[in-house]
Design goal:
Elements lengths: L10 E4 L5 E2 L2 E2 L1 H13 L4 E3 L9 H10 L8 E7 L8 H13 L4 E9 L3 H8 L2 H11 L2 E8 L3 H10 L5 E5 L12 H10 L4 E4 L12 H10 L5 H10 L4 E7 L3 H11 L7 H14 L23 H13 L4 H10 L14 H5 L6 H12 L4
Helix pairs in contact: 1-2, 1-10, 8-11, 9-10, 12-13, 12-15
C-alpha cells in the first residue's frame, strides 16, 4: 500500500516538546491540544521511544488513542539504534512501544536518526530494515521509513541498498539550506530525484525561526502583517514539492492555534516572499548562533545534570542582544536546579547523541567563560 501524499495532512503534531508541569507531561493540556488539532481535520502524530524520557508514547495513548477511534488518526514512532545491544532488542522495543501507545499497529514506523557511525551500523548489523518489512507484511507497520541526520553521501548509499523504504524524514528549514553540516538542500534534492515522499522536522529550528531582531521581524511583518514570524518558516517548507508532512513540536495551545491557522486554507509562498526569505537568511546568518534545536537528547545522560539546550539558548540570546539582562537572569534561575556550564567535565556523552553534531564540550567552555565568570 503506497502512501497517498495528497491525503496526508500538511501539518503533523510532533510530540517531542509537549507541555509539562513540574517536569511531568501535562496530559490535560495535551488533550486540549489534540482536540484542537483533530478538529482542524489534521491527524498525523509523531512520537518516539525516547521522547520525554519514554513518556511521549504513553501521552499519545492517554490523549489520543483512548479518546479517538483508531482509524481516525495516524501514529508514527521510531526505533532507536542506541538502545539495541542485540537483534532481540528490536522486538522487545517494538512490543513495548505497542503497549505504551496502546495500539495494535503503527501507521508509520521509522528507524530513528540514521547517520554515519553507530546508529546506521547497528541497524545493518541487526537487520532492522528486514525486521520492519516483515512487520509490515504482518500489518503491524503500515508504512516504513527512517529519520535522517547524516550526509548526502550516506543517504544515497542507504537508499541504494534499501529501495523498500517508502518515505524519509529530514531536517529542513530556510537557515539550514546551506549549513555545511546538515546540508539539507542536498538531502532534499536527492529525495526529490528519487520521488520519495518527504517528512520535514525542525522547520522552525527549535524555535530559532520564531522571532529575530525587531528590524528583521518588521521586514516579515510588512509583507504579512497578520501572520506570525514562525509561520514563514512553516510555509517555506510546506511550499516545497514532494513534502508530505511538516512536523511541528508544539508546547502550548498558542503555538497550536498559530500553526493550525497557517495550514488552514494553506497559502504557499509567493515568489516575492521567497526573495524575502533569502534576504532574512542572509541577515540572520551574519550573527552566528549555536545550532541547537532543543531536542534534549543530550540531557538524559549528562552526569552533571546540565540543561544544555537552555545554556545554549542563553548564549544565543547574548550573541544577538549583548545587553539583554533577562538572559543572565534566566541562566541564574536555571542553575538553581541544574548544573552550571562550568560543571561540564567534557565526557562528550552528549556529543554522541546530538543530531546537530555540535561540539558541545567546547561550546560549554565558551558558555562557562561568559556565564560563570563571577562564580
Amino acid at each position: 500500500m503506497s502512501i497517498n501524499v495528497a491525503k496526508m495532512p500538511k501539518l503533523g503534531f510532533g510530540m517531542m516538546r509537549l507541555p509539562e508541569e513540574n517536569g511531568v507531561i501535562d496530559i490535560d493540556h495535551v488533550c486540549k491540544m489534540v482536540d484542537k488539532y483533530m478538529k482542524s481535520g489534521m491527524n498525523y502524530f509523531d512520537t518516539a521511544y525516547i521522547y520525554h524520557g519514554g513518556k511521549s508514547e504513553v501521552a499519545a495513548r492517554e490523549a489520543l488513542v483512548k479518546r479517538y477511534p483508531r482509524d481516525s488518526f495516524m501514529l508514527a514512532t521510531k526505533l532507536p539504534a542506541w538502545e539495541m545491544r542485540s537483534a532481540s532488542d528490536i522486538p522487545r522495543i517494538f512490543n513495548e512501544q505497542l503497549e505504551r501507545a496502546g495500539v495494535d499497529y503503527f501507521d508509520f514506523y521509522l528507524l530513528h536518526s540514521i547517520e554515519e557511525g553507530n546508529n546506521y551500523e547497528a541497524h545493518e548489523k541487526y537487520d532492522s530494515f528486514k525486521w520492519c518489512m516483515d512487520r509490515k507484511a504482518e500489518g503491524k507497520i503500515k508504512h516504513f521509513g527512517f529519520s535522517f541526520h547524516g550526509s548526502p553521501e550516506l543517504l544515497e548509499q542507504v537508499l541504494d541498498k534499501h529501495p523498500e523504504v517508502e518515505f524519509v524524514q529530514i531536517q529542513l528549514n530556510y537557515l539550514d539550506r546551506t549549513n555545511p553540516v546538515v546540508r539539507s538542500q542536498r538531502l532534499y534534492e536527492i529525495l526529490r530525484d528519487r520521488n520519495i515522499p518527504i517528512i520535514i522536522m525542525e522547520p522552525v529550528r527549535g524555535g530559532m525561526l520564531a522571532g529575530f531582531t525587531p528590524e528583521i521581524d518588521a521586514k516579515l511583518k510588512k509583507r504579512q502583517p497578520n501572520r506570525s514570524i514562525a509561520s514563514w518558516a512553516l510555509r517555506f517548507v510546506a511550499s516545497l514539492p514532494g513534502v508530505m508532512t511538516v512536523l511541528s513540536g508544539m508546547s502550548n495551545e498558542e503555538q497550536m492555534d498559530d500553526n493550525i491557522a497557517t495550514f488552514t486554507d494553506f497559502e504557499p509562498l509567493a515568489d516575492d516572499e521567497f526573495a524575502i526569505i533569502n534576504e532574512v537568511t542572509e541577515e540572520v546568518l551574519k550573527v552566528p548562533q549555536i545550532g541547537c534545536t532543543g531536542c534534549k537528547y543530550c540531557c538524559d545522560g549528562c552526569p552533571m545534570n546540565i540543561s544544555i539546550p537552555d545554556v545554549f539558548r542563553t548564549i544565543n540570546t547574548l550573541r544577538r542582544y549583548p545587553d539583554d539582562w533577562r538572559a543572565n537572569n534566566f541562566y541564574q534561575s536555571l542553575v538553581t536546579s541544574n548544573g552550571k556550564a562550568s560543571d561540564c567535565i567534557s565526557c562528550r556523552q552528549c556529543e554522541s547523541v546530538c543530531p546537530q553534531h555540535l561540539p558541545i564540550s567546547d561550546l560549554m567552555k565558551e558558555a562557562a567563560a561568559i556565564l560563570d565568570k563571577d562564580q
